[in-house]
Amino acid sequence: MGTQRSNRxxxxxxxxxxxxxxxxxxxxxxxxxxxxxxxxxxxGATFCEIDxxxxxxxxxxxxxxxxxxxxxxx
Length: 74
Fold this sequence. Notes:
It is a single chain. By secondary structure, the chain is of the alpha+beta class. It has helices spanning 2-6, 20-26, 58-71, and strands at 10-11, 31-32, 38-43, 48-53. It has one domain. Helix content is 35%, strand content 22%. Strands 1-2 form a two-stranded antiparallel sheet. A two-stranded antiparallel sheet has the order 3-4. A hairpin with a 4-residue loop joins strand 3 and strand 4. Helix 2 packs antiparallel against helix 3 (58-71). The protein is elongated, with a radius of gyration of 14 Å.
């Protein structure tokens, strides 16, 4: 079941306001996250949680570093 979920959950990124470098770094191309980063699922009676291991992808890690460096301007 986890593989099926990982192959279906799609992220459509969008930065409405922000620094040019952040908007360009994030982009707007949809991606299926299960193909890019490791995911772990937890499910309870009243919740469903998905944990993304950003460190499992060098591209995602680099994007996080970019976003963190520009978050100081907020």
